[in-house]
Amino acid sequence: MAERVLVLGGSGFIGRHFVAQLARAELRVTVPSRHRERAKYLILLPTVDVVQADIFAPGVLERLMRNQDVVVNLAGILHGDFERMHVELPRAIVAACRATGVKRLLHMSALGADLNGPSAYQRTKGEGERVVLDARDLHVSVFRPSVVFGPEDRFLNRFAAMARFLPVLAVPCPHARFQPVYVGDVALAMMSALDDTESYGRVYELGGPREYELVQLVELVCAMTGRHRLVVGLPPRLSHAQAWLLEHLPGRLMTRDNYNSMQVPNTTSVPFPYGIAPQALEGVAPAYLRPPGPRERYPQLRWRARR
């Protein structure tokens, strides 16, 4: 049974929820972060040790993996150097596992990962999967979630922020299909696989109970936040032009690579693993998207400031 778990990318959105579940199970958890202060909210969790480290620096992965039972790779990006994060890092993780004798590896991929996918994101995610699954001497499980939602997500919350300030929401690729999955369910599936020998070598696709077109999701967010906005779906050429424009603006809300990713449905027909009934977006999202009342606002601000 696993007792000590190293979580790479543990300070990210999915990582925070997964690490919290590990802590509840009283497992010893190590979370490396280049900026330890940014992950200080994890330090408060019992059994969790946040260490300042650059996992790309030579020898660091080997040092972190010593005396660990399981390595979990949750590191990933939506913009930037996909090759470095999605391919080179998994390759380095496999090498470090072999060097330190760690056999168990959980790897976070993405629904739509494909060596021949239309976007660099999908292709590098597919290559990262190939790297870890080809390591037959390790006990690897791969997870492929659709877009993940939950408190502090960068998906529904982004639409909510746009609806707050914009009277008209122009939606690129309005008919792009998604199957949003709750972050708590993703973390639960990973926890269930942790000590499951039947999960070795398997790829788990994780989707919520319902599929949506992107324009439907934007309309849902507007309804949940009580903001009546005009939602307009853009045709392909304008969608691509919007992606090009946003790619060159600070924050990079969207890129042409994101546009390419949305040409493929981000959905699955595979049942959720371990008998878990995935939670519906409509049952979870209103609680964190709805504008807070005066009594709720101050505690929320303190929570976001990690105080």
Taking the sheet with the most strands, its summary is: 7 strands, parallel
Just name the CATH architecture of the largest domain.
3-Layer(aba) Sandwich
* The CATH topology of the largest domain: Rossmann fold
Listing every helix as H and every strand as E from the N terminus to the C terminus, the arrangement reads EHEHEHEHEHEEHEEEHEEHEHHHH
**How many domains comprise the coordinates?**
2
The poorly predicted ranges are: 299-304
CATH class of the largest domain: Alpha Beta
In the sheet with the most strands, the strands line up as 3-2-1-4-5-6-11
Number of helices: 12
Radius of gyration: 20 Å
End-to-end Cα distance, whole Å, is: 35 Å
Percent of residues in beta strands: 15-25%
What is the SS-derived class?
alpha/beta
Helix and strand topology:
Elements: E1 4-8, H1 13-24, E2 28-33, H2 40-43, E3 48-52, H3 60-65, E4 70-73, H4 82-100, E5 104-108, H5 120-133, E6 139-145, E7 148-149, H6 156-165, E8 168-171, E9 177-178, E10 181-182, H7 183-193, E11 202-206, E12 212-213, H8 214-224, E13 230-233, H9 236-247, H10 256-261, H11 281-289, H12 294-304
Output the keywords.
about 300 residues; alpha/beta; Rossmann fold; 7-stranded parallel sheet; two-stranded parallel sheet
Walk me through the structure.
With 307 residues, this protein is of the alpha/beta class. The protein has two domains: 173 residues, Rossmann fold (3-Layer(aba) Sandwich), CATH 3.40.50; 93 residues. Helix content is 41%, strand content 17%. The protein has twelve helices and 13 strands. The protein has a seven-stranded parallel β-sheet, with helices on both faces. Helix 1 links the parallel strand 1 and strand 2. Helix 6 packs across helix 8. The longest helix is centred in the N-terminal third of the chain and has 19 residues. It is globular. It starts with a strand and ends with a helix. About 2% of the residues have low confidence.
